Amino acid sequence: MSIDAATARKVAHLARISVAEDELEQLTRELDGILGWVEQLQQVDVEGVEPMTSVTPMSLPRREDAVTDGGIRDKVLANAPDAREGFFAVPKVVE
Fold first, then answer.
1. DSSP characters for 40-74?
2. Which terms does the UniProt entry file under GO BP (predicted)?
3. What does the pLDDT look like over 1-15, one tens digit per residue?
4. Considering only Cβ atoms within 10 Å of each terminal Cβ, which end of the chain, N or C, has fewer?
5. pTM (2 d.p.)
6. CA–CA distance from 59 to each of 22, 48, 52, 75 (Å)?
C-alpha cells in the first residue's frame, strides 16, 4: 500500500498535527515506511504462538478478595478535623 500526499494531509489533520507543505513529502515517506513494516509483520506466521504480557513468564501475586476495614481506623480518623464514635463527622447539609 502506498500513501499519497492527500492521504498524508488527511492523516495529519485527523491527528491534529500541523504540517507545512514543504514537510508533507517527508511525512508521506515516513507513513509509507510505517505501512511497509506493518505489511511485513502481517506475513509472519504466528499460528500457535501464545500472546505475551511479559518477556519472562511470571504471574502476579494474588490476595484473597475480602472486605476489611484496613485495621488502621484510628490512624485514619486522626487526620479528620472532626471524628465522633469512630466515624468522620460532617456538617448537616439537609434540613
1. HHHTS--TTPPP-SSSS-------------TT-HH
2. glutaminyl-tRNAGln biosynthesis via transamidation; regulation of translational fidelity; translation
3. 688 999 999 999 999
4. C
5. 0.50
6. 50, 21, 12, 33
